[in-house]
Amino acid sequence: MAPILSIRDLRKTYDSGFEALKGVSLEIEEGEILALLGPNGAGKTTLISAVCGINRITSGTATVGGHDIARDWRAARDLIGLVPQEISLEPFEKVHRTVAFSRGLFGKPKDDAHVEKVLRQLSLWDKRDAKVMELSGGMKRRVLIAKALAHEPRVLFLDEPSAGVDVELRRDMWRVVAELRRSGVTIILTTHYIEEAEAIADRVAVISKGRILLVEEKARLMQQMGQKVLHVTLQQPLNAVPEGLAQFHLTLEEGGRRLTYHYDTKAERTGIATLLSALAAAGITVADLDTEASSLEDIFVGLVHGDEREAAE
């Protein structure tokens, strides 16, 4: 099956000479959630804007549902819904009319049943007659999503959808995204909240300085690149790590009551058994052990910092 979105060697250079996208290639399957992660200025919004036809690409190609975004832009754009970072809504218009108007912009016939379905899906139905200016920030973001879904797109771009939204509403947004995926919508999500990607994404793409550093299934990425930490709680506190344990690169925490040991999940041996034997030989009594896996945020930070170091060299 052909991907719903195919991007090949996409480049964007501004008149100033700044190269915002440097040969980005990416394929996204229908019905998946892809989290596009990257620091500020990495090229996330530029990439989305290029695919959506807001920015003109310098070179390369992109197709949506088989339609080239440059040669067959109208058909490609009809398949795309975009929720931008900025909240830009007519403040005096009612919610229902705002969403229905967006449907008309794409030449779709009037369909009150579909508009009602979208508003109910986003918990906006009871606010349908409210003016946009009367809504909270979280509700306004829901209206932006409703507008993007009004013309029944197959691909939905969410550019920082939960920025400025409190934790409870953010969790509601995750639920909405999961429901949209179940209805067959393909979702590309950019976010600064890496726990969002960890919670709902199928795959993760990391972009830095206009280049894609990595595209991988979330679970496989965390398995392949993740590290684990072993926390060793001691019966008696230590003033310092004994010299005989230097090979394990331990750190002493919590007033000398806990030793922390990092190990690679991909290694043939973790070294934990050797460490415990060395602790016993040093006369150190262990009270408790617990492990902690590295998060997607740890992996992301490592990738981006690694890219920055390579660029500096």
UniProtKB/TrEMBL annotation:
- Residue ranges of every copy of the ABC transporter domain listed in the record: 5-234
The record's section on CDD domains has: ABC_subfamily_A
- Tell me, what's a Pfam family for it? ABC_tran
What are the GO MF terms of this UniProt record? ATP binding; ATP hydrolysis activity
Q: Which domain of life is it from?
A: Bacteria
Keyword field: ATP-binding, Nucleotide-binding, Transport
Q: What name does this protein carry?
A: ABC-type multidrug transport system, ATPase component
Q: What is the lineage of its organism?
A: Bacteria, Pseudomonadati, Pseudomonadota, Alphaproteobacteria, Rhodobacterales
